[in-house]
Amino acid sequence: MILPIVAYGDPVLRKMGVEIDKDYPNLKELIANMKETMYNASGVGLAAPQIGKAIRLFVIDASPFAEDDDLDDEERATLKEFNRVYINPKILDEEGEEWTFNEGCLSIPDVREDVTRKPKVTLEYQDEDFNTHTEVLDGLAARVFQHEYDHIEGVLFTDKVSSLKKRLIKRKLENISKGKIRADYRMRFPNLKKKK
User: Which parts pass through the membrane (predicted)?
Assistant: First the structure.
């Protein structure tokens, strides 16, 4: 089932996600719905807060990035296979010289900004069957992971841009929170007044 994506301004996007266990209600169905919602919106990642749930869960399918002509064969192959469910992930280490990349977010349509992040991340997470894995990601895979991880920490990519950029996009962000935006997918806006 395709779920509405929560828009910028909703308090759930600022909540620290709580850990879940294998008894979380309807988890398999939730994961399937999140994937369907992500694909419907042409996203490469979707975190639970973006569908209104403040839990430590996100899905990633970065295979669309594998089409980028600027990638080397190794990174292209990695991204083609980078399709995961992350439950209760923890970043163990971030390293390397920071690099900048233009990011966007399904909760913040039509806003894209350059964000600086470390290129390599070591992490631990549980899969859908609650098996624990340790993984090292780098390049675009690391960036997609870090972006989604920020969501379960209550952080948005717009928090990472300069104060000047924040002032420049302030009006756009206010309009998104008021529902004054067109998106090609279902959204839930926090500041829409209910009609009586």
Answer: none
Q: Is 17 within a domain?
A: yes
Residue among 74, 124, 148, 174 flagged as catalytic: 148
Q: Is 58 exposed, middle or buried (0-12, 13-18, 19+ CB in 10 A)?
A: buried
Residue 195 lies in a domain: no
Residue 148 known to be catalytic: yes
* Amino acid, res. 170: K
Query: Per the annotation, does 151 bind a ligand?
Result: yes
**CATH number of the domain to which 36 belongs:** 3.90.45.10
Spell out a b/e string for 139-165, using b for 16 or more CB atoms within 10 Å of the CB, else e: bbbbbbbbbbbbbbebbbbbebbeeee
In a domain, 196, yes or no: no
- What pLDDT was estimated at residue 139? 93
For the chain, the domain total comes to 1
Rounded mean pLDDT of the chain? 94
Type of residue at 18 = V
Note the helical H segments in 81-191. 140-152, 163-177
Q: pLDDT, tens digit, for every residue of 71-124?
A: 888 889 999 999 999 999 999 999 999 999 999 999 999 999 999 999 999 999
Query: Could you tell me the residue range of the domain that residue 164 belongs to?
Result: 5-188
